[in-house]
Amino acid sequence: MFRATGPTSGAVIEVKLGAKKDGHITAVEAVLKYQSGAFPGSPVNQGCMCGLAVYDLPNAVVTGYDVLCHRPKVAAYRAPGAPIASFAIESCVDELARELGIDALAMREINGARDGGKAVHGPTWVNIGYQKTIEAANASEHLKTPLGPNQGRGIASGYWHNAGGESSAACHINEDGTVTVTEGHPDIGGSRASMALMVAEVLGVPYEQVRPVVGDTTSIGFSASTGGSRVTFAGGMAVTQAAEKVVGELKKRAAVIWDISAEAVEWRDGRAYPAGANAGSFEPLSLAEIAGKAARTGGPISAEVQINAQGQGPGFTTHICDVEVDRETGAVKILRYTAIQDVGRAIHPSYVEGQMQGGVAQGVGWALNEEYVYDKDGRLENPGFLDYRVPVASDMPMIDTILVEVPNPRHPFGARGCGEVPIVPPMAAVANAIADATGIRLRDLPMSPPKLRAALDAEQPPRLAAE
Predict the structure, then answer these.
(1) What pLDDT is attached to residue 98?
(2) pLDDT at residue 207 is higher than 70
(3) Rounded-to-integer distance, Cα 54 and Cα 43, Å
(4) Is the domain of 16 the same as that of 155?
(5) 372 shares a domain with 340
């Protein structure tokens, strides 16, 4: 598997920051050099976009290079390109804050993106929640926890642009009043549950009556790739529109049963009602009652929708990480971790928390252990989990999450993608925590025990036994 799939890019990033004594950043220059492997196509574009997006900067120049090398072609890896850029930028912002004697969160609050501001890569921000993640971080219990010897705390923020695009969905009412919703996106993060929740909300029926099904193009229209933090947004928009069409059809069927105009019927709480006294005096009809009479009122009740969803909301996050450093071995232990994220409207909050926690765990692995090792001919030397160290449960504390809900106004339920931005800040948060604990700034990933031990030795050479 390791040899058959591509890695993410290795990279070299150079950053220059200028700031006033009060902490306002006046200028940034960044050069990003991403490996693409033997063929062009590294995610340097996204690195250039995402690295500085959390800041409101008066002057910035970002240059990206797609570097070909004698290695396998790189592939997409959660929030492609963004975590690499964030590691460099957020580490430098932390260094600058220390140099100026300004609190790390205050530094980000002073310079952070706000509604009406313009991002370096072009968009003008509307309905973003970055500053609210800073406020939530400042108010968190985590910051009130004191640190002990050889312990440090790191702060880092991150951004991912999210995506919309093509999605298809169908909604069918069964004769017993249950609902089948078919969508074209494989479930890689809880999306089926989210689709069922949105359809249930539109139809006004219990969630348990909705059965979500993932179909392919033999049963449903085309849907673009499942990725880019787009499924709950774009797929959710499609299933919502399909359910709304079904509501329109249910009103027509009730009108047939009552022998009145469809415009004289309204739908609420899972039932059809006469729209007013002039429409007549009829007992409300439940969805199940209308479904049971479908054969006599026009046949099966269903609707299908194909859309090209636009208006995805960007994702912003701020992370707090506490570590403890074993100066004898160079090992780093994650003591506590809190992820605060603007998630739009959390359609299924527990799944959103799971996405946040998974991104943190993945990012911590990238920060401390995970590394592809190649020989001089570009062959992978550690193609298995015996030699490629990923975090296990015993490596991680319980990851705390704080959901900041700033609804996306261009989605019927306010959803915005939340699956990729959690992996953007962890490497920088861990690096900043190590710097806080040891006074040593590590600039290469992973920050594994041998690397940290070597840096500690360089700072303070080990004493001989005779000394």
Answers:
(1) 96
(2) yes
(3) 19
(4) yes
(5) yes
